[in-house]
């Protein structure tokens, strides 16, 4: 589809007739695919009906990322890169009070909108006309258009400068996701000159990259619901930031530090608590800092699981009460499951061989209580299973 056709679609959807078509598309969601278009006959041309149905499907997909999805407009590619709303909303709280932020590549605007809703003002640059049209509509839909100025320009071709900027380079410039920053848009070799025009820049990157970066700064990894979402670099004259930070959302637990070494390993015993650290802790290299801060020790010298005498609510990750230490054989584990009336089972494993996954189908949880099994190696290189009942009060 041509760029002009994309823009025409967005212009229609943003109109009064488009709003009516979108309303009918939403009402027709429960119908079989071949009947949805027929249910909308008369609301517009065949192309306009297709545009409304496609946009309605995007809104359904976007609902998992944004609570405002039903009111917004999207393009497929921009939605793929759009920040999950809880992450964008948390980031918006990190700007100084009443800040003016230049958004260098705004897409359909989740970050700009969240920033505006937090009370800041935004100048949002987006070179793609269809995305820029979506952003204008979205700002109006959330009643923040007075705080969001949209510039339909390429940041590589305009003169920019300011105090604060947010930079989220395009990771799908050819429609296919890439982890190579030299293939981003704009490419990595242009970033130092672009970002040097601002005093402070918050850069959003994917949690995993291929190759090296030409920029540096304090580093922060962010997860949502246990899944790594982004890597933030704070470039420029930021003050008071830790060298490394791991943040787990939605709870907001975090750990900061410089990447200290782990203490000696110890074995969990019945009555202790085992922590499966959040993925951001591992990405940021802060396992030792977390252990030192919360009085924990690793189960194995190479790290992964941590153990302590009590649950620490401030630690990013998932806690498991250790009710039993079992031999890593199916008979021992099955006997424990039967003796404790286990009916639903969660299995956690890091660095374990493929055989453990086969145990999931071999074990029989026939009771009524939920439990967690943690498969791992001890400091003596023995495979063991730590078993915990997921009961109220734990």
Low-confidence stretches: none
The radius of gyration computed from the alpha-carbon positions, rounded to a whole number of angstroms, is 25 Å
Biggest sheet, spatial arrangement of strands: 3-2-1-4-5-7-6-8-9
CATH topology of the largest domain: Rossmann fold
CATH C-level of the largest domain: Alpha Beta
Series of H and E elements: HHHHHHEHEHEEHEEEEEEHHEEEEHEHEE
Largest sheet: 9 strands, mixed
- At CATH level 2, the architecture of the largest domain is 3-Layer(aba) Sandwich
Q: Helicity level, as a percent range? A: 25-40%
Structural summary, described in words:
This protein is an alpha/beta fold and 394 residues long. It folds into 3 domains: 3-62; 78-241, Vaccinia Virus protein VP39 (Rossmann fold); 273-389. The chain has 13 helices and 17 strands. The protein has helices at residues 3-13, 16-27, 33-39, 46-62, 76-81, 85-92, 110-117, 129-141, 191-195, 279-284, 287-294, 330-339, 355-362, and strands spanning 100-104, 121-125, 148-151, 162-167, 198-205, 219-224, 227-236, 244-249, 253-257, 273-277, 297-298, 306-308, 317-321, 324-327, 342-349, 369-377, 383-389. It has a 9-stranded mixed β-sheet. The protein has a 4-stranded antiparallel β-sheet with strand order 11-12-10-13. A hairpin with a 7-residue loop joins β11 and β12 (306-308). The longest helix has 17 residues, at 46-62. The protein is globular, with a radius of gyration of 25 Å. It starts with a helix and ends in a 5-residue tail after the last strand. The model has no long low-confidence stretch (mean pLDDT 92).
């Amino acid at each position: 589809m041509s760029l002009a056709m994309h823009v025409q679609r967005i212009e229609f959807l943003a109109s009064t007739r488009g709003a009516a078509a979108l309303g009918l598309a939403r009402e027709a969601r429960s119908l079989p695919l071949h009947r949805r278009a027929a249910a909308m006959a008369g609301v517009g041309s065949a192309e306009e009906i297709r545009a409304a149905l496609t946009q309605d499907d995007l809104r359904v997909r976007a609902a998992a990322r944004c609570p405002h999805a039903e009111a917004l407009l999207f393009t497929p590619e921009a939605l793929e890169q759009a920040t999950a709303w809880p992450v964008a909303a948390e980031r918006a709280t990190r700007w100084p009070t009443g800040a003016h932020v230049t958004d260098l590549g705004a897409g359909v605007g989740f970050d700009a909108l969240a920033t505006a809703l937090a009370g800041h003002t935004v100048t949002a640059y987006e070179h793609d006309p269809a995305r820029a049209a979506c952003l204008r509509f979205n700002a109006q839909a959330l009643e923040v258009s007075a705080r969001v100025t949209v510039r339909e320009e390429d940041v590589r071709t305009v003169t920019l400068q300011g105090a604060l900027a947010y930079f989220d380079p395009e990771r799908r410039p050819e429609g296919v996701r890439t982890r190579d920053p030299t293939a981003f848009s704009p490419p990595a070799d242009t970033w130092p000159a672009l970002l040097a025009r601002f005093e402070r820049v918050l850069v959003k990157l994917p949690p995993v990259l291929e190759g090296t970066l030409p920029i540096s700064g304090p580093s922060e990894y962010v997860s949502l619901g246990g899944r790594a979402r982004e890597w933030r670099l704070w470039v420029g004259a930021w003050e008071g930031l830790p060298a490394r930070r791991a943040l787990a959302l939605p709870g907001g637990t975090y750990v900061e530090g410089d990447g200290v070494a782990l203490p000696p390993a110890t074995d969990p015993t019945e009555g202790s608590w085992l922590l499966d650290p959040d993925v951001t802790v591992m990405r940021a290299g802060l396992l030792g800092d977390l252990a030192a801060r919360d009085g924990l020790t690793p189960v194995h010298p190479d790290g992964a699981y941590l153990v302590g005498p009590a649950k620490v609510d401030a630690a990013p990750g998932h806690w498991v009460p250790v009710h039993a230490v079992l031999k890593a054989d199916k008979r021992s584990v099955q006997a424990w499951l039967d003796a404790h009336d286990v009916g639903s089972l969660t299995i956690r494993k890091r660095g374990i061989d493929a055989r453990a996954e086969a145990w999931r189908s071999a074990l029989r949880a026939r009771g009524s209580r939920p439990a967690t099994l943690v498969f791992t190696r001890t400091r003596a290189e023995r495979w063991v299973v730590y078993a915990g009942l997921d009961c109220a009060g734990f």
